[in-house]
Amino acid sequence: MQYNRGFLLKLFVIFYFLKIVSSKVEFTNINCTSWDPEFSDFEYCYLKSVNRSYKYMSLKVNLYKVPINVIKVNIAALKRFNGYKPFLYNATVDACRFLKNPKSNPVFSYLHNMFRSFSNMNHTCPYNHDLVVEKLNTNFLNNHITSALPVPEGDYALQTSWFANNILRATVLVSITLS
């Protein structure tokens, strides 16, 4: 049986895009650091593996000096090349202003949508309660990351640094593998 080149090219393209869409996100580590324990501290910060295909992340930070009216977040995407190196994005946003108008920054809007439905960090300032991200699972991230962005396979980390009143208060580093 003979196939023409057009058919083989179409078949190659289909398999190529199926490979991108079928990428798998897997949590490998989480590290939460409170830089000012009198201001805030992590009650818990962990990854939980329910079975081979279902993992989730949970964290809770207790805020001791509320209300908080000025919040800035620095987000850095890192890729592992002999250690973690900057990859694609490293920027700081005024979280209070962003939450008033999420369309003002499409990149942060995309990142916020990754955890918004699993968190209580979905309203504007002031924050006068503890902050929680509860059971953010890899199945949700698989759909969110791999369906929108053709990210190459590899080891990645997302580092967030949280500033309140222009003072670094906490850092959260989440490591993932894309396969």
TrEMBL record:
Pfam families xrefs: DUF1091
SMART domains for the chain: DM8
Protein name: Uncharacterized protein
Signal peptide interval: 1-23
Species assigned in the record: Drosophila kikkawai
Keyword match Signal: yes
Key words of the record: Signal
